[in-house]
Amino acid sequence: MTTVICPYCFDRAPAAKLPYRCLMSPSGVRGGAPCGPERDDIWAGFMGPGVPPAARMRGPVFSPARGVAALASGLRGGSGGSSVPCPGCGVSTTVRVCRSCHSDLPSDYCDQDSRIIALVGPKASGKSTYVSVLVNELNQRVGQAYGASLAAMGQSTQQRDKEMAEDLYERLRLPDATRPAALGFNDPLLYRLSVPRRGRLSGGTRHTTLVFFDAAGEDLAGAEAMDRYTRYLSAADGIVLLVDPLQLGSVRDRLPVHDGPPLPTVETPPQQIAADLAVQLRAHGKGGSNGRVSTPIAVAVTKTDMLRPLLDPHSPLLRNAPHTDGAFDADERLAVHEEIRSLMTDWDSGALVRQLELDFARLSLFGLSALGAPPPSDAPADVPKSGPQPVRVEDPLLWLLAHRGLLPVRTTGKGRVK
Ligand SMILES: Nc1nc2c(ncn2[C@@H]2O[C@H](COP(=O)(O)OP(=O)(O)OP(=O)(O)O)[C@@H](O)[C@H]2O)c(=O)[nH]1
Ligand SMILES: [Mg+2]
Ligand SMILES: [Zn+2]
Ligand SMILES: [Zn+2]
Description:
Elements: E1 3-5, E2 12-14, E3 20-21, E4 38-39, H1 41-47, E5 57-58, E6 61-62, H2 66-75, E7 84-85, E8 92-93, E9 96-97, E10 104-105, E11 114-120, H3 127-139, H4 141-146, E12 149-152, H5 155-170, E13 189-196, E14 205-214, H6 223-226, H7 230-235, E15 238-243, H8 249-254, H9 270-283, E16 297-301, E17 328-329, H10 330-348, H11 351-359, E18 363-367, H12 395-403, E19 409-410
Parallel strand pairs: 11-14, 11-15, 15-16, 16-18, 17-19
Antiparallel strand pairs: 1-2, 3-6, 4-5, 7-8, 9-10, 12-13, 13-14
Helix pairs in contact: 3-5, 9-11
The structure holds guanosine-5'-triphosphate, magnesium ion and zinc ion (2 copies).
Protein name: Double-GTPase 2 domain-containing protein
Domain Double-GTPase: 115-306
Pfam family, one: DO-GTPase2
């Protein structure tokens, strides 16, 4: 049976137990009156005082009679969700709501198991740019290599994807700083990833729901601020921690004098974010008997386009992974890991890597550039003129998916995905 994890409050429930919300649409058939809105205090309570009184009035929530629910879940195919008639007005609805917070769940969200990927990193480390470019790459180059596709689920993710893609790829504008949670709840980004099943005569497709959160850097800047994200972090199946090399003193000193845009202000050190993260996860039972956190963590150095002067011309960080025969290349993963490890050791005598290795049992290091080149020096809020030319943006997520057995892996043995 499919277990649904609410992407808003992270309550877990069997899909068949989720209530529905009436859409209050006129039926047109029987000429009956549509349902009117009702006060949804559970939802309003979860959203906090920012919700205006009028917005608290929503379509009635109901649990279908047992037989109806069973029939609906039996009828449910791979997509589209089930629909159940509202006992009030008789009109069918596909909108499910979370039992605990009454947030609406896109109908197809409930059809497959979800994987929650937590995205953390200091302010301006490149989180928002990374997610948008990643989504685009998964739909194009990477999707093609694996025969995979990624579909945004629900209106709010579809809307945000559209706006971000227009900004990044058409208007060539970089995203604004993400608003902190104190100013309102940022919706999670929901996707359905479809990957062909391998090794079975019948073929078929495996669907997985991916949930990303693009938090504001300041919400991850200390143990207290991070507390708001605790449920999200402890529900995560994998974590992507972004490290901005331009915020590390020793990298700034090593970069040749350049005429690019000014270097970013130095925010929370990645070492502190990693330490706070480990404390949070241990407090939620994610610590193993060896004291290390069991949640897999991909630590990715961003903006590697700026590191070119420090890299060997043959460095694997300068090109994308091959994805030969639609498989994740574990030897390449190891080569990148070793390369970043040796760069980091040079930067801070290995303090960050040592701490990560002591805190996390499943760790892999990555290097990526979402833009492929620095923003133009005369327009630091713009994408380079040629548009985003990403390098290795997909690697951290693919590693996390391969780790879960969701992607085929190729290796000569040494780079084995644990
Ligand atoms: N050189 C280079 N700069 C980048 C790249 N990606 C992002 N940046 C720069 O980093 C800045 C911040 O990027 P965002 O994606 O907004 O960072 P964020 O982590 O979402 O920031 P907050 O939402 O404030 O926490 C951008 O405005 C760019 O100047 C990249 O691939 N290369
Ligand atoms: Mg952001
Ligand atoms: Zn919920
Ligand atoms: Zn109704």
